[in-house]
Amino acid sequence: MDLATVLDSHRVVVCVGSGGVGKTTTSAALAVRAAAQGRRVLCLTIDPARRLAQSLGLSELRGAEQAVPAALFAAQGVPCKGTLSAMMLDMKHTFDELVARTASSPQQRDRILRNRIYQYVSTSLAGTQEYMAMEKLHAVRRDARFDLIVLDTPPTTNALDFLDAPQKLVGAIDSPVMRWFVETLESSRGLSLMGRGTAFVLKGLSRFTGVEFLEQVGQFVGELNDLFGGFRERAKAVYDDLKGKDVAFVIVTSPSPLTVAEAVYFTRKLRDYGIEPKAMVVNRVHPLLVPVASADEGIAHLEQLLRARGDSADARSLWAKLDTALHDDQALGRRDQEGVRRLRRAVGAQLPVLEVPAFERDVHDIGALAQLSSHFVRSEGQA
Ligand SMILES: Nc1ncnc2c1ncn2[C@@H]1O[C@H](COP(=O)(O)OP(=O)(O)O)[C@@H](O)[C@H]1O
Ligand SMILES: [Mg+2]
């Protein structure tokens, strides 16, 4: 199976991998390809580069889906038989929506949304962004307007955060420390009765001042206890979703040694979670150039070229420079080949590994995305 087939046969495709490897670009390319071929696609993306956002019609709104006009495809010479909508994920907005849905009354909703601890948790706590990407997916995956959802994931440096996010998040909110705060607050009814030790710990723990912090935590945990049943269940439902047969995980990586090691580790970790990734994209592979047989041959060839152009430059010194550049390129090409080989060995033959070349320019428009996606089909004779 290649990636194009994976795309055809699933309803949800999730792109995961280390930061900066090309997850957002790959997600957009997958979405463009499927839309061109006739699917009704929603691309949930995170922080696309400005020009990419513009070419997906996302230059203004966040947190709401935007239809990409068919004219944008046509202008780039890409026929589009289906439809493409894109949405830029906004984690705070998603978290707020979750609270609004789960709260027992509008008053409770407003108390939580106004709470400063909530504001911290919903914007800054590790794992929130990852969890909210999943949450958004859960909310839209049954939307009948779409038959394919492509989910980009946050630019975490550690790809594993992504899977551990819900436990971390629930754990942090529902931790013994938080409970201790609440109990202290309830038994002491205010800071005046509290021991010096507690006040000292509080100072160390937060950027808020003691009393205010305690009050806010107490209120927040109190409200969440109420919400919690729902929240925990929901986190579980969201994660059960990911194990569905119609969901395909695609691991994106670069061929450089560090990210290769991470991609291998991440593949194992997914398998530990009972999720078999469906494909791996090795993005920005430098081609291995065919070397010229000898310096003499190279110089002779250059002389010919220069003569044809009426150029009087010295072929020998030009060759010396070219040769150095060629050597550097060859080294990069060899390193990348080795990276791809290592990946293939480590993940096993059942996982298709697709190579996408490094383009000379950033991949920003629909034309370039479509071109990139042509590499998702395995060519004849490729391992
Ligand atoms: N194959 C490629 N060739 C050239 N540039 C690329 C390629 N893939 C991605 N890029 C560029 O690299 C940058 C980072 O890619 P991005 O998809 O945002 O990474 P991530 O989402 O993993 O952080 C973008 O400017 C993008 O245009
Ligand atoms: Mg990204």
Q: How would you describe the overall organization of this protein?
A:
There is one protein chain. The longest helix is centred in the middle third of the chain and has 33 residues, at 210-242. Strands 3-4-2-5-1-6-7-8 form an eight-stranded mixed beta sheet, sandwiched between helices. It has helices spanning 3-8, 23-36, 50-55, 70-75, 91-102, 106-114, 116-124, 128-140, 161-173, 176-188, 196-205, 210-242, 257-272, 295-308, 315-347, 366-373, and strands at residues 12-16, 40-45, 66-67, 83-88, 148-151, 247-253, 279-285, 353-357. It has 383 residues and is α/β, with parallel strands linked by helices. Helix 13 (257-272) links the parallel strand 6 and strand 7. Mean pLDDT is 81; it is low at 188-209. Helices cover 56% and strands 11% of the residues. The chain has a domain at 295-339. The chain has 16 helices and eight strands. The termini are close together. The chain is elongated. Bound molecules: adenosine-5'-diphosphate (ADP) and magnesium ion.
**H/I helix tally:** 16
Main beta sheet: 8 strands, mixed
| Ligand types | adenosine-5'-diphosphate, magnesium ion
Task: Please mark out the parts with pLDDT under 50 across 5 or more consecutive residues, or reply none.
Answer: 188-209
SSE run: HEHEHEHEHHHHEHHHHEHEHHEH
Strand content: 5-15%
Straight-line distance between termini: 12 Å
Shape: elongated
